[in-house]
Amino acid sequence: MKKTFSFAILHFTVAFGVAYALTGDLVIGGAVALIEPAVNTLAFHFHEKVWRRVEQKQVKVDDPSSKGDKCIA
User: Fold this and answer.
1) H helices present in the chain, as ranges
2) Where is the DUF2061 domain (predicted)?
3) For the chain, which has fewer Cβ within 10 Å, the N-terminal or C-terminal residue?
4) What residues does each domain of the chain span?
5) Spatial distance between the Cα atoms of 35 and 38, rounded to a whole number of angstroms
6) For each of the chain's 73 residues, which pLDDT tens digit applies?
7) Distances (CA, A) of 71 to 38, 45, 64, 66, 68
């Protein structure tokens, strides 16, 4: 949990720093630092769902028993 919390602080700091450097505005920097991680979290959730499907399809392709050409001994 400590690692997650430290990464959240790092993410907030980077988002704030970049937005502030680009705009020179503390309010915009703060808003971006709050909104960007939330949006990024949602994007990551859907990214993981898509990758799970890709991986499941890859397992089916790699599994010889799923191709219908089973050996009969």
Assistant:
1) 2-23, 26-62
2) 1-51
3) C
4) 2-63
5) 5
6) 888 889 888 989 999 999 999 999 999 999 999 998 889 888 989 999 999 999 998 888 777 665 555 555 5
7) 51, 40, 10, 12, 9
